[in-house]
Specification:
By secondary structure, the protein is of the alpha+beta class. About 25% of the residues lie in helices and about 35% in strands. It is built from 3 helices and 5 strands. It has a 5-stranded antiparallel sheet with strand order 1-5-4-3-2. It is globular, with a radius of gyration of 14 Å. It starts with a strand and ends with a strand.
């Protein structure tokens, strides 16, 4: 769960997502999965298999999938704070040695006292 005690929420959200991407690049999928606190609004949890399948569909092949720990500032990242206080952070997923236009959309849902539950809403091409 993400804890934010400061006003600049975007910095904390970006750092959290960068940590998730770094774990993927190191093939530490279980540890990356632990950064997700809850399923998305459709009840889905983005597992290693689902992420890899999304990338394989993007490339229209079944080749092995790799992820790169690219700086998110190079991945067309976008931040939004909703009226309800949810924080949305999306970025292009670096995989198979390129920055794709396959977007990962994280959502951070307020839990009180500066804590936010993290989930991935979707991985898709916009």
């Amino acid at each position: 769960m993400l804890s934010i005690a400061e006003q600049n929420k975007e910095v904390h959200v970006k750092s959290y997502c960068q940590s998730w991407l770094r774990l993927l690049s190191l093939q530490k999928f279980n540890e990356a999965q632990k950064l997700l606190d809850c399923p998305n609004s459709c009840g889905e949890t983005w597992t290693e298999a689902k992420l890899k399948f999304a990338v394989q569909e993007y490339y229209n092949n079944t080749s092995p999938v790799t992820f790169q720990n690219e700086d998110l500032s190079k991945c067309s990242s976008e931040y939004l704070e909703t009226e309800s206080g949810n924080l949305i952070f999306g970025f292009y997923l670096p995989s198979n040695s390129e920055i794709t236009d396959l977007t990962v959309e994280f959502e951070f849902i307020p839990q009180g006292n500066g804590f936010y539950a993290a989930t991935i809403n979707d991985v898709h091409v916009l």
